[in-house]
Predict the structure of Methylene-tetrahydrofolate reductase C-terminal-like domain-containing protein.
Amino acid sequence: MIVAERKPIEEIIKMVEKHESILVLGCGGCVTVCLAGGEKEAEQLATTLRLYFQKENKPFKTITTTITRQCDPEYVKSVAEEVAKVDAVLSTACGVGVQFMAENYPGKWVYPALNTKFAGANLELGVWGERCGLCGECILHLTGGVCPVIRCSKSLLNGPCGGSQNGKCEVSSEIDCAWQLIYDRLKSLNSLDLILKIQPPKDWSKARDGGPRKVVKEEVRL
């Protein structure tokens, strides 16, 4: 199971403040179990944002819905009508869900409301495409929903290496260059200025490496 926790509300506000309408999209999968991004948490986040922008006298509309999983095309495609009605999507899924939403809705900003912390084990056989490195410090809002930590073979944070050719990684011609994907994505969103932002070295103390890590939720009283 993937475990996540919500980003500070100040960071979320900064992400979405340029928009006038957003879809707060909850996920009924792992993040519901860990009390970070399910239906209840999505509704609470939407309410917090509406109250903040109301206080700031800024027009701001939210639509809230929760789908069974944001990592499954069947459910992701079911919210096409809602996505079409808003400027952007604020996903309360893990990093996999954020990126899968971004891949399925290439003309729409999809922002991460959570920091993905670590993953547990599901011991069923299958083939999976990795999308999130569980680094604990999500920057998908700066890279258009493409994770350079896991999609780049060298985990480069500030552009491609000199070995990429024709949009492919030097490791293998079957691997897309992550920074070509990021460039293309930001260009489609008219946000290429973000690619010029220099990222500091990764603070791996926030990642899952270096021993077991856990997120402790406060007791919920009914």
